[in-house]
């Protein structure tokens, strides 16, 4: 087990101690965690320092570690029916963490709650849950990144610099990075790491899936006092960070109501047109992500500004049409491409 996986490993130690009525020796903990005895002791001491009620009891020549039986953290009054329902509905949202220690613990909580409910209430909850579905659609399997996620969590908690190998979206070569991790961000079914990249000397967004080597160093860092996560993502249409752009898009009458139903970006402004369509405007960081959004609407969306985005959409449509043996009339000006993005590259 790699050193950076402390968070997941210590989580498992807690779960083992919870289920071990007679406690466990440090040697047994080391064996089940596949770590050295010294590492097992360090994990136990870290958990004690974090406030978990662990104690040791001498048994012959060995000492057994236990959780205090009567100790309870301060928890709310018993859950209400609607709170239980929200827990069950929200469980679907954690499917992205399937295969990781976090998802298994969440499932354990739900199973214990269900075990406490009378059959009639349980049947009622199941009938309501059957009428709802949270999440769904394409998702990533983060079970295979369980150790990476655990190490990143540990680095964020301890304020320690990471060394990682990273494949950017548009490159066929892996780059080695040193990153001070500031925040783990779950957005649109993807887990991102946001931190200061020493290679680029600026705050960057890294996609966890594209990290293929990770080492937790002993170097410490502090998040700058002037860093604000909310300010960092404020202008992004989704996650990318580039120069601010003023965008105006005309939406057809057929799709105007659907587009109006959502807040696509905090900066959006909508102007209704006489024919029933709308013009929707944004002030966003970069054009790549909003270009994909426009393309997803097909002929129902027409870019009015900026010209750069209009040309990019035209070029994308022409390339798509050529896949089917057709071609659009040549644009009067060449499309602009190759912009830089602050999603790690």
UniProtKB/TrEMBL annotation:
Extract the Pfam families matched here. Answer: HTH_11, WCX, WYL
Domain WCX as annotated: residue spans:
246-321
Q: Where is the WYL domain?
A: 147-214
Q: Which organism is it from?
A: Desulfatitalea alkaliphila
Q: What is this protein called?
A: Transcriptional regulator
| InterPro entries, alphabetized | CBASS_pafABC_assoc_protein, HTH_11, WCX_dom, WH-like_DNA-bd_sf, WYL_dom
The residues covered by the Helix-turn-helix type domain are: 10-59
Task: Fetch the Gene3D superfamilies from UniProt.
Answer: Winged helix-like DNA-binding domain superfamily/Winged helix DNA-binding domain
């Amino acid at each position: 087990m790699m050193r950076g996986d402390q968070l997941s490993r210590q989580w498992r130690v807690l779960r083992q101690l919870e289920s071990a009525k007679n406690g466990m020796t440090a040697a047994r903990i080391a064996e089940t965690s596949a770590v050295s005895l010294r590492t097992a002791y360090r994990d136990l001491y870290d958990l004690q320092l974090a406030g978990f009620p662990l104690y040791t009891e001498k048994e012959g020549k060995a000492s057994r570690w236990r959780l205090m039986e009567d100790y309870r953290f301060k928890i709310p009054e018993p859950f209400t029916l609607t709170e239980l329902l929200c827990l069950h509905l929200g469980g679907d949202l954690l499917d992205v963490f399937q295969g990781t220690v976090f998802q298994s613990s969440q499932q354990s909580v739900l199973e214990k709650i269900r075990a406490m409910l009378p059959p009639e209430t349980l049947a009622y909850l199941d009938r309501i849950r059957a009428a709802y579905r949270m999440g769904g659609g394409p998702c990533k399997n983060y079970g295979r990144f369980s150790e990476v996620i655990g190490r990143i969590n540990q680095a964020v908690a301890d304020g320690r610099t990471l060394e990682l190998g990273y494949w950017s979206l548009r490159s066929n070569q892996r780059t080695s990075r040193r990153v001070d991790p500031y925040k783990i961000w779950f957005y649109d079914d993807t887990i991102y790491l946001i931190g200061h990249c020493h290679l680029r000397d600026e705050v960057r967004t890294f996609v966890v899936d594209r990290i293929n080597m990770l080492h937790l160093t002993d170097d410490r860092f502090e998040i700058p006092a002037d860093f604000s996560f909310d300010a960092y993502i404020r202008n992004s249409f989704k996650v990318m960070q580039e120069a601010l752009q003023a965008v105006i898009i005309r939406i057809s009458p057929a799709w105007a109501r659907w587009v109006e139903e959502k807040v696509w970006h905090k900066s959006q402004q909508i102007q209704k047109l006489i024919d029933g369509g709308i013009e929707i405007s944004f002030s966003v960081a970069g054009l790549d992500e909003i270009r994909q959004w426009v393309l997803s609407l097909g002929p129902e969306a027409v870019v009015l500004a900026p010209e750069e985005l209009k040309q990019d959409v035209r070029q994308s449509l022409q390339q798509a049409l050529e896949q089917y043996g057709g071609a659009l009339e040549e644009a009067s000006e060449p499309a602009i491409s190759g912009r830089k993005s602050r999603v790690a590259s």
